[in-house]
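Chapter summary example.
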Amino acid sequence: MPTALAPSPSPVPAPPAGDETPPAIRPEPAVRRAIYRDMVLTRAFDQAATALQRQGELALWAPSLGQEAAQVGSAHALGEEDWVFPSYREHGVLQSRGVDLKQLLPLFRGADNGGWDSEAHRVHLYTLVVGAQTLPAVGYAMGLALDGAAGAVVVYLGDGATSQGEVSEALVWAASCAAPVLFFVQNNGWAISTPTRTQARVALARRGEGFGVPGVAVDGNDADACWAATAAALGRIKAGQGPQLIEALTYRLGPHTTSDDPSRYRPAEEEASWMARDPIPRLRAGLEEDGQADADFFAEVDSAAAALAAESRRSCLGIEPPDLSTCFDWVYGTEHSLVAEERAGVAGR
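The structure predicted for these 349 residues follows.
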């Protein structure tokens, strides 16, 4: 059954005592298979994008290696009516919400500002400024409540973002207005080179307590547990009981971004210990043990993953440099005289 938390040798804080724990429920077999499939596809895409950056085809990449269970497990607990506000590493959430991951490549290649149909997938665009997505997420949740809409908002952030002022402001607003919003914190142990223990003297699951936002810690490498904790939190939030925070204890197996070298600050034995807790083989073992997936299923998933990686590479190499004038296209929803003047100035160069 899903576990609330497993002891770990990481520098992450100890789990909170006496807090809520996820219910002892597990997703249906079809959902577990879908979670596994999205985790494998996300990793294949992530590794392809990392290789493309190393070959100079992308300007930068933020790997999600090791965090697939936290992202995909939680995302599969969302309903179609719910909204997602991601940061810049939620590739697994996008995959789970049906966003074509190849649409991320122009952003990290520097060819556009990133774009997919947010309305269609109910996933807002990536936010590259740490923690800056939390206040818009709370505002959007307040709007949903004022409209009497059924959905909730899930805002994804990392442990480092919890040190940002915007996050504290977002918690104040969320609690004060009883906004239907879930703060899903992926504590991957390190904010670039700063360990979590340096950032927080108490577990991040308790970060919201002073604001009136209850929290729960969950094993972020256990996809079943992440699904169960998120489903329970959203049930509580949609019942009108106000915002909640989940701290998913996981580990960033790769670098913070491809401009970073974690071997300069992170002990190899720590990485090895977390590699042994890789969430993908862990879920596969669970599916096999429970007789919920066979060899044909795993072969099909591996084939789809290989195809996605190949398509991603072809897509990246085919990206054309943008026309400079397109940077004015989405500034305002209607014509604006100043923007029109600037567009004309660029065209006349």
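To summarize the output: The first strand starts at residue 83 and ends at 85.
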